[in-house]
Amino acid sequence: MKLLRRRFALALVCLLPSFAIAADPAPSYDYKGEIMGVACAACSKKVKNSLQKMPGVSAVKVTATETSGLAKLEITSTSADITKESAILALGKEASSYQIQSLTRSESKKP
Which residues contact 7 (CB under 8 A, 6 or more apart)? Predict the structure, then answer.
């Protein structure tokens, strides 16, 4: 019986850290804009891969539109400091093929 109690106590001690109260998660920011030059899935993937390397970025969505020639760009990040210029820098050498026309941040939200 003592051995069983010791094992239970040890198991309880090992599990307690997983039940610790986490700190408030960082706010999340949504950015919306338009990008020119995205014509196919490969283009979309290049843009997404480049922008996902920016600090704090958790998601990038690029949706091509057939009518306007501009694709919709959506970025979700914990950083409140993403600008059109920083996104263009993140595109690197791809910036000559894809031109970000606009990028604006919406209000912060809790995850």
Answer: none
d(CA 59, CA 2): 52
Partners of 100 in the β-ladder: 35
User: Which pairs from 90-97 meet CB under 8 Å and 24+ separation?
Assistant: 90/50, 90/51, 90/53, 90/54, 91/47, 91/50, 91/51, 92/50, 94/46, 94/47, 94/50, 97/37, 97/43
Q: Region 68-94: what's the mean pLDDT?
A: 92
Please check whether residue 34 is in contact with residue 70, taking contact to mean a CB–CB distance below 8 angstroms: yes
Query: Which pTM was predicted?
Result: 0.72
- The residue with greater pLDDT, 49 or 12, is 49
